Amino acid sequence: MTNQHTSLSVGRSGELLALADRVEAATGPDRDIDCWIENRLDLAKFVPDSPAPHGGGWLDKRVEPKPYTASLDAAMTLVPEGAFWSITMRGKQQGGYHACCQIEGSLDWREGATPALALTAAALRAQATNNTISEETGR
């Protein structure tokens, strides 16, 4: 299976990291973020139907984007091929979840209110890092 996300440019790495920050700050599923994910990874082209960059609805031929922020199954589709990933609970006192998604280098654990949010944030960061590494090394 080939990685469908290798067409990203270095400029998009920063956009993916900013999007990962939004995912980490989310308190639950967010359709707006799901649309931005599909746009940034060129999986679909959603167009805001209002002038606000992070508000309003979205227009596309499909009814809904994949629910990355709501579903572990959808979040798993963002994990780069060959990456190590893991999700853990933070515990009763702290609440929330940790997730990591690494292709190479040390583990970078990310937090999320739900397992899907934690894994989505970690996978977006891995996509951004993988894109930067690929551009630098020509791999």
The quaternary organization reads as single chain
Determine the structural class based on helices, strands and strand pairing: alpha+beta
Main sheet characteristics? 3 strands, antiparallel
Q: How many helical elements?
A: 4
The low-pLDDT segments are 1-10, 133-139
Rounded to the nearest angstrom, the distance between the terminal CA atoms is 17 Å
Q: Strand portion, in percent?
A: 5-15%
Following the backbone from N to C, one meets helices and strands in this order, namely: HHEEHEEEH
What general form does the structure show?
A: globular
User: Reading side by side through the largest sheet, how are the strands ordered?
Assistant: 3-4-5
Q: Tell me how many strands there are.
A: 5
**CATH architecture annotation name:** 2-Layer Sandwich
Say which CATH homologous superfamily is assigned: Bacillus phage protein-like
Give the number of domains. 1
Helix content: 25-40%
CATH class: Alpha Beta
